[in-house]
Amino acid sequence: SLVVLFGATAGAYGAKLGSDERELILLVWQVVDLPSKKVGTLHKSLVKADNLDLSDQCREVSGLTPEGLGKAEPLDRVLQQFSQLVSSDLKVLGRSSYTLCSDGQLLIRQVLHPETSKKNFLLSDCFYSFYDLRKEFHTCYPSSAAVKDQTIKTMAEYLGLGTDEAEEDFGVWQVKTMVAIIFSMLSEGCNHVFTEPETVKYKYETGPCSKSETVDSETVIRARGLPWQSSDQDIARFFKGLNIAKGGVALCLNSQGRRNGEALVRFVNSEQRDLALERHKHHMGSRYIEVYKATGEEFLKIAGGTSNEVAQFLSKENQVIIRMRGLPFTATQEDVLGFLGSECPVTGGKEGLLFVKYPDGRPTGDAFVLFSCEEYAQNALKKHKEILGKRYIELFRSTAAEVQQVVLNRYMSTPLIPTLPTPIIPVIPPPYTIATGSIRDCVRLRGLPYTAGIDDILEFMGDATGDIKPHGVHMVLNQQGRPSGDAFIQMKSADKAFMVAQKCHKKMMKDRYVEVFQCSGEEMNFVLMGGTLNRSGLSPPPCKLPCLSPPAYAAFQTAAVIPAEAAALYQPQALLPTSRTPQASAAAPPAVTYYPAQAAQLYMNYTAYYPSPPVSPTTVGYLAAPPGAVAAAATATHTPILPQPGALVRMQGLPYNTGMKEILSFFQGYQYAPDDYNGLIQLSDQARSVLQAPKEWVCL
């Protein structure tokens, strides 16, 4: 038997059903016995939603009112009545089992499953298997319209069924027409058989992913804005009703191995992916989640792995994975098992532990643990921030993709987010420095398409392009080096900036409107250095916070120089459209190119905290030198890249308790004279006393 089911929400109708997160307000159903071609009683039930504010489309199409819905039963009670009435009708027809049949996939996948998941009650088993009438109709009548273009009305018109929608109540006409369509498909001319129902997975299955796998780009999405503590199961719950591939949730990590609020999700087919895209800006708790298309290559970069150690660890399927962070470097497997205790036994004992190590074998303080059931995992999570040795241990839910990402990508090969490239040749042309001060001669563009480039911005500005200062377009990148959707533009005057903000505010760029605000150079600098500027005010970047800021270096009081040949390789004009290339100076170029000390100060402060500055190359102009250029510069017979002595090196991966003496000891054997640094960097009295101690070497 089939149970023909139709429903409506308080919001969108038709192809957009469920895309606006509105609640179910109507269910209509009728039992159809296929062998005897008999039907049961037609039932119509209103559903009381938590929010009775109906959309205009809903009012117009359904004719329902908030007053009428206010007297209805809530969804859980209606579903109980549904099960009871269906069982009663089946007994009358002499049947015991049934399968749902709906008009398309939206009612069950995009409405019922997400709503019941958010309201924390379970759907009965019948809602995990159903027939899609549109697909069955197209199978029976191949010459009919494509499945995505089918509706109840078009199917009825194709069969020539003379039904008048206006004669019946909303929902009743739809169910009666669907029953008539089914009977036509069962007629002697067609003899259609319902054999392959659609299925909804009961739960998300974890599992490893190999880099050698082929992942269809039409099945992958990127979710942004996730709470940092969300797990793969939380993400699967957000996409409840849609079938995620086994091991198809990959949480993205930053260069420190911490979650960055993004995840890549792989679905079983493109149809499920397209339904997932309709959940753009749906909510997970109080946060809305952005959903975009992604590629199979991106998914494999995050989730793929080939380590035998990891593959063996993840070979035990359907395990709950917990990540431990902050372990003492001397911690052993016995220490971890003892910390977890008997109330949360680890699957396989020591085999259920995986310590994360650096390529040289040193421990990182991270480990992954397998548990056979949710109860054991919950007991383990209760030990969050308990003490092991002299350190408190953090415990989080994790995923198979995170295991591979942390162990393989971060620690055993290249980092997920590249650190600052070396060597670095700083190139900032002397006439054009970053604006400062409180004069509001800049504009901020917010909401740019992520694919927008400088050409798009110049086209967006229109006639105002001529009022932009040379090198005045600054694309803001996020910590992953991707476009953030923001840009700053330096105008020639505050009046020009005001006019641009008035003229271009909410003007369209591609398929998005862009907000344009007037701001000052100081505000622009704060954002470019990692601060935030929003309705709540201006938050300084980390490098400007008293508790985080490194010593106030004076940068280079003696101007650092670059060989003219090397500087010529990195002219920032090459990064701008040819139409915006500044006119060459009439004066002969000097033998060396100078860059301002202010820029060095910005660079040194900023990179103390972030692996990649969120600025465009045209803003600060730091470009990685090609190996050939560096070699040529090193062997040249002219002025060195940095004045000697005074060359700087950057150290990464220092222990948190490292002091100046440990760093000096690390560089023992490199001969530098302390007096040569007095004019280069401002030193505290304590630092000066260490550097001027009777030693033959010092370091910076």
From TrEMBL:
Which compartment or compartments is the protein found in? Nucleus
Query: Which terms in the GO cellular component ontology are assigned?
Result: nucleus
Query: What keywords does the record list, in alphabetical order?
Result: mRNA processing, mRNA splicing, Nucleus, Repeat, RNA-binding
Tell me one GO biological process term. RNA splicing
Q: CDD domains under this entry? A: RRM2_ESRP2, RRM3_ESRP1_ESRP2
Residue ranges of the RRM domain?
A: 320-400
What InterPro entries does the database record attribute to this sequence? ESRP, Nucleotide-bd_a/b_plait_sf, RBD_domain_sf, RNaseH-like_sf, RNaseH_sf, RRM_dom
Q: Which GO terms describe its molecular function?
A: RNA binding
Family per similarity comment: Belongs to the ESRP family.
Q: What is this protein called?
A: Epithelial splicing regulatory protein 2
What's the source species' lineage?
Answer: Eukaryota, Metazoa, Chordata, Craniata, Vertebrata
Q: Which gene does this sequence derive from?
A: Esrp2
